[in-house]
Amino acid sequence: MVGGAARASKTALRYLLGTCVPSSKQNAAKVRISQLEFNDHIHMHYKKYDFVYANDPKKLCKTGDVILIKELSNKLTRLISHEVIEVIYPLGDITDPVTGKKIVASQYREDIDEADKLLGKKDSVFDYSKAPKRGRLEGVRDFTHKKMYLKYYDDPHEPQPDTVY
Amino acid sequence: MNIIINNYTRTVASLFRDAGNFSRRYAVSIADYKINWTRPEQPSELSPERSGDLGLDVGVKPTDFAKYYSESGELKDASDIVKKMFTLQFQPFKSTKYLRKVKTVDFVRRNELDRSSPEAQIAFYTSKILRLQEHVKKHPHHSTARVDLKEAIDKRRKQLKHLRTWDYKRFEWVLEKLNLIYKPLPEPPKQIARKESIRRLTEKHCDRLVQDKLNNYKGELKMLQRQFYVEKAEKLAFIREEELACGLEPTVSEKDIEEAKKKAKECQTKEM
């Protein structure tokens, strides 16, 4: 019986939902898994984060995406213990699961378009149909895909590309 | 016995030669690693370098009419002197400021009345930041302007952060339209300290030493590879011959021998 319960708990834990954070690995995503931990002293639940590395050779996920990961039966490396199954909620491009419509924060995209039409839509408005895929400005204008750190030495021969001042 | 005595005298002599110091002679201090640390110069947090502004050409010239005057019918028929009076250079600075602001927001405006959308807000702040950065350069001790500028930069950063999580594609589009760079806040440590920096540099230096040694060793092994494959092919051929001569079933095929020869040739061409 005990063995059965342990197996059941293991199968239940096999799939996990987590948020993708900037990773320094090439073919693996760093995933932040949050869970609630009960504090016996204060009798309250507190959020606790675990970080795991998930194998992602196809580069499905980007920083900030909510992804589904699966525990591997054998670890690929010392760190990579999971694999990415699919992206559930891409960051900033969320579909409402109930209605199937695209949303922006708390509004439907359709409603925003409708309001723009009524108030006189301008040519300068952003067009979703012409918008390219996310990630074209990575390393050019948008530096959120990498961990930023403070510049800590001054050497013109060895520049530090991922720094802020 | 003689050998032992000789060795002993040599060690003692070397100890005396090294000034009688029994501690390790290498890497006693940071100077031995030849690591020179200089504190990186920090540009002002109000500078375009840190705020992420790459400049924006809104096309407002001093010879342009102030906002709303350009639409006036009476001004069209007026004389040149009157027309000149209503250009930006003869109007108060606030009219230039206003026109710049309107034209900046026009890059991203959703509709005629749009003032509150995130992209419009970001455009407002951008216009303000660009103006104040110019002003602060001229008047570096104008503290109210500096405070306003800092506030505007921080508020715009916050707006960009929210827009990124709400609507990524629009965020990227705004960055391109307003010619901005977005960098997230850095990981800790949030301040640069001498000791910590030197520690990190030393670590980097040691990693590099290890990598260099590994690369050298790999090169050495690569050099030996050709000789190894030549010998391997010879030995395999010998084994095969012997086995055939003894009337046994050969454990080595012709294919194996050819493969070894092929690899030897490959190594030779690489060396060339």
From TrEMBL, chain A:
GO terms for biological process: mitochondrial translation. One of its GO terms (cellular component) is mitochondrial small ribosomal subunit. Keywords: Ribonucleoprotein, Ribosomal protein. Gene3D superfamilies: Nucleic acid-binding proteins. The keyword Ribonucleoprotein applies. GO terms for molecular function: structural constituent of ribosome. PANTHER family: 28S RIBOSOMAL PROTEIN S17, MITOCHONDRIAL (PTHR24088), SMALL RIBOSOMAL SUBUNIT PROTEIN US17M (PTHR24088:SF0). This is 28S ribosomal protein S17, mitochondrial.
Automatic annotation (TrEMBL), chain B:
Belongs to the universal ribosomal protein uS15 family. It is found in: Mitochondrion. GO terms for biological process: mitochondrial translation. This is Small ribosomal subunit protein uS15m. GO terms for molecular function: RNA binding; structural constituent of ribosome. Keywords: Mitochondrion, Ribonucleoprotein, Ribosomal protein, Transit peptide. Its main location: mitochondrion. The lineage of its organism: Eukaryota, Metazoa, Ecdysozoa, Arthropoda, Hexapoda. One of its GO terms (cellular component) is mitochondrial small ribosomal subunit. Pfam families: Ribosomal_S15. SUPFAM superfamilies: S15/NS1 RNA-binding domain (SSF47060).
